[in-house]
Specification:
371 residues
């Protein structure tokens, strides 16, 4: 049986995610701002959770309909085939948002959705009171311009939680965003990757996972593993396939530098947790001490910036030093994510390409130098 799914992502990574979805066998792919819709079997749902590196989560679409009143919202929910997805003892809490819609009160919408779902499931199972004593089926809703989208979250914890970064520095980049940047940089298993501001090592680790073809969700669990419409066999099969694709031998190497020795320790510890410790080195080094590599290197970095760790003037001084130390690039390539619109002039060279990427709610640009 085919189902409809939706995977949200960071704004700017929609195209990258759509390619990932196509690669795992997703069909009917539709890209919108911050979301990728697709269809597939239960097996595709499991593979999406295990394999997708840039998705924030994977949700099953329970229904779409228009609602401008609470009565329309209630009746719309009542008509959906919820019992196909939610068991008679399952818990079904809901959360969501409403934008540019007549139903603007989120708490009120939550109450109506909960009540309508209870009536729907009660009728389906012939029960006046649902015990809600079983597994959690987290419901998410979106109301945009009066269009209601009701979803069942099959991931549980966000997919950025790979399991390797229990500790992080003061301003880490999210794993899913890092994976998107690594994908844009086309990191391969013969590459040398360097991050001169490695922090907790996320960009280096995601580079290693990409190069070694390690599925990001291989070593974690998902809420969908306890849902009635997703058999255990699809999860076992997805993990087995993921394990079979790992490259155990590779020429890939990654090197990280940071002025803070605690960040260096974090990078090495997190790399070990991720299972890529032997491919990653890190050491304490200021950008002022940066020395160029002999072989071509892909430098991928998220340097400190004014709204994060440093005053803007300090950050721009750092960018100036980066330019002095990294330019000319020669055969090297460089990928820098920052919210500073003046980065190119401070760094000293116009990027070959730049694209908008959102780091959380902060609009950034990924400046790419590759010629």
């Amino acid at each position: 049986m085919k189902y409809n799914f939706v995977a949200p992502c960071h704004f700017g990574l929609e195209k990258t995610l759509s390619f990932e979805v196509k690669k795992i066998g997703g069909e009917d792919i539709v890209v919108t701002d911050g979301k990728v819709f697709f269809s597939g079997t239960a097996s595709i749902c499991a593979k999406a959770n295990v394999f997708l590196s840039t998705a924030e989560r994977v949700c099953t679409v329970l229904g779409k309909f228009r609602a401008e009143t609470f009565d329309e919202l209630f009746e719309g929910i009542k008509k959906l085939p919820l019992s196909e997805f939610i068991g008679k003892t399952d818990r079904f809490p809901n959360s969501g948002h409403s934008l540019n819609s007549k139903l603007s009160s989120v708490p009120a919408c939550q109450k109506i959705i909960k009540k309508a779902m209870a009536v729907n499931l009660g009728n389906a199972y012939g029960m006046n009171i649902l015990p809600e004593s079983g597994n959690e089926c987290k419901i998410r809703f979106s109301i945009m311009k009066n269009e209601v989208l009701l979803m069942l979250d099959t991931s549980g914890d966000g997919l950025h939680k790979r399991g390797y970064r229990r500790d992080s520095n003061a301003a880490p980049i999210r794993e899913t965003l890092a994976a998107g940047i690594v994908d844009i940089a086309r990191v391969r298993d013969r590459d040398l990757v360097c991050d001169p501001f490695c922090g907790s090592g996320t960009l280096l680790i995601e580079s290693a996972l990409k190069a070694l073809n390690v599925a990001p969700g291989l070593n974690r669990s998902f809420s969908g593993e306890h849902m009635k419409f997703l058999p255990k066999t699809v999860w076992e099969s997805a993990r087995e396939e993921a394990r079979s694709l790992i490259k155990t031998e590779s020429d890939f190497r990654a090197v990280g530098f940071d002025v803070d020795p605690e960040c260096v320790k974090l990078t090495l510890a997190n790399a070990e947790k991720a299972g890529v410790g032997k491919f990653i080195k890190a050491e304490k080094r200021d950008i002022r001490e940066f020395e160029k590599f002999d072989p071509p290197v892909k430098m991928i970095t998220n340097p400190p910036y004014g709204e994060r760790l440093l005053e803007l003037s300090e950050a721009r001084e750092l960018y100036k030093i980066m330019g002095e130390k990294l330019l000319p690039l020669g055969e090297n390539s460089l990928y820098v994510i920052t919210p500073d619109e003046e980065f190119e002039s401070t760094f000293g060279q116009k990027a070959d390409k730049n694209r908008k990427l959102y780091n959380g709610m902060m609009m950034c640009r990924l400046y790419t130098y590759y010629k």
